[in-house]
Amino acid sequence: MASNALSSIGNFYGFSFTAKGGGNAQSFIRNGGGSDNPARNLNNNIFPASFELVKGDLQSWADAKKQAEVAGWPFRVDLQKMYEKTVLNPHVAACIQRRKELTLLRDFQIVDAGGAPDKHWTEFFKLDWYVNHALHYILDADYHGFSLSSIGEIKDGVPGLLTNVKRWNISPDRKHVSIFEKSPAGYSWEEAPYDQWHVWMPTPQLNGINNCGYGLLYVATALEILQRNNVQYNTDFIEMFAQPYRWLKTNDLEGDEFEEKKKALANMGHMGALITGLQDELEFLNDGSRGNGYKAYNDFDHRAKSDISKWFGGHADFIDSTPKAMGGTQNSGGGDITDDASGNTPVQKAIAAKRMIDGDNAANRTNELWIPKLRALGIDIPKGHKIKFLNDSEERAIAAQEADKNQKWGTLGLTLAQAGYRIDQKELESKLNLKLEKVDVMPDKNVLTDKKEQAAGAGPLKDESKKREDKPKHTK
C-alpha cells in the first residue's frame, strides 16, 4: 500500500523512489545527462527543482560570499548561481572560451615512466570522452572553484555518460552533495558506492576560511555586474535623451476624446509619450556636459571589459587586439595559434603564462585524479603513464633562452679572441652545456706562407703590395 502511494507521488512530481544501485539513495527522473544510477551519478540524489537565477547586484554578490563563509553553516548555492548568470555575459563567455582554447588546442601524448610516447594510450585519451568532456570539466574547475564529475559507465573499456554534478548542490566544506539546496543532509562522494564513480577537483583556498577556492568567476562576477549595470544606465540615457519623446498638451484630460488622443500617441511607435494640461511644464535635466554625457558610458564599458580581460587573460588586449603597422596586431608575430613563447608583446607573454598555468593544472588533475580513478574502474593504464601536453610554451621559452645565452657567449669568445685572449675550453663547455671539439682552420690566403719571408718579418701579401713602388700602370 505504501509502495503504491510513493509510486503515485513520484509519478505526479516526475521522479521515482526506486533505488537503482545506491543503497537507500533515491533515483529521480531528470534531464541533466549522465547515468541514471545514483551510485554513479550523484545528480540522481538531488531533489528535482527548477533552476532559478539569483539577483545579480553587488550587495547580492557580497551576501553570497558571506553565505559561503558562515561559521558552521556555509553554502555555495547563491555564489554558484550568480556564476551561471555571469557566464551569460558575452564578453565573459568570450574570455573563458579563449582561455580554455589555449589548452584545448594543444596536442598531447601519454608517455611512460621514461618519457617515451605510448601510441595506444594517447589514442585512448584523444577519444570523445576526454577531449570533449573530461578536459572541459577539468578546466572549468578553475572558474567555479571546483568540479565534481560523474563517470556513468565503462563500456568496451571506455568511460561513458560523463557529466558534472550541479555545483549549487555541492557543499565543499561538508564534502557531500545536498539533497535540497542549503540542506546539511547529503551524500558524500568520498564514501562507497559513490567514491568509485566520481572525480572531485577542488582549487586552493587562500584565505584559510574554508577548504575550497571561489574560482576565477568570483572577481569576474563583480566586474560583470558593474559592466551590466552600465549598459542598463546607458540604455536609460538613450531612451530619455537620444530617442524622440512625444509631449501632448491638451485641455481634454478625460472622456472619449482624451482616450482617442492617448491611443493615437501609443500607436506612434515605441518611444515615450506624455499628456499634460496646457499649464504643465516638462523639463529634462542632465549633467550639463553639452551633449557629451554619453561618452561616460562608453568609457566605463571599455574600462570594465578591459579589467575582465586582464583578470582572465593577464592583459587588456586578451580578447580585443590593437592594430599595428603593416596590418599586424598585438596578438600577431609569434608562431602558430598555440605558440606565443616567441612573441615579443606583453599580450603574447601574458597568454603564454596562462597557458603554462592551465596546462599544468590540466596535466596534474588528469595524472593524479582521473588516471587513478580509471585504473580502479578496471581500465589497465600502466603504472607510471601520464599525460604530457606538447608544444609547451615553457619548453620553447627555455630553448629560446638557452639559444640566446649561447649566442652571447659565442660573441664574447670571438671578441676576446680578437683581443688576443681565449676562454678555457672546459669553462666554455660548462657555460654552453655543449661538447666542443677543435677543428683545423684553413689558413687565410692573404697571409704569406713562404718560410723565408716569414722569417724575414714580411707581412701579409696585401700589406706588402702596398709598399711596392714599381707597380705596373693600368692601361686601357
| Span of the ends, CA to CA | 128 Å
Spatial strand arrangement across the major sheet: 5-2-9
Number of helices: 14
Give the helix proportion (percent range).
40-55%
Proportion of beta-strand residues: 5-15%
Topology:
Blueprint: H1 2-13, H2 58-68, H3 77-86, H4 90-104, E1 108-111, H5 119-125, H6 128-144, E2 146-150, E3 153-155, E4 158-160, E5 163-164, E6 170-171, E7 176-178, E8 186-188, E9 198-202, H7 217-242, E10 246-249, H8 255-266, E11 273-276, H9 294-313, H10 346-376, E12 386-389, H11 393-418, H12 425-432, H13 451-455, H14 461-467
Parallel strand pairs: 10-11
Antiparallel strand pairs: 1-12, 2-5, 2-9, 3-4, 6-7, 7-8
Description:
The protein is mostly helical and about 475 residues long. The chain has 3 domains: about 50-215 and about 355-390, no CATH class; about 220-340, no CATH class; about 395-460, no CATH class. It has 14 helices and 12 strands. Strands 5-2-9 form a 3-stranded antiparallel beta sheet, covered by helices on one side. A 3-stranded antiparallel beta sheet has the order 6-7-8, with no helix packed on it. A hairpin with a 4-residue loop joins strand 6 and strand 7. The chain is flat and about 125 Å long. The N and C termini lie far apart (about 130 Å).
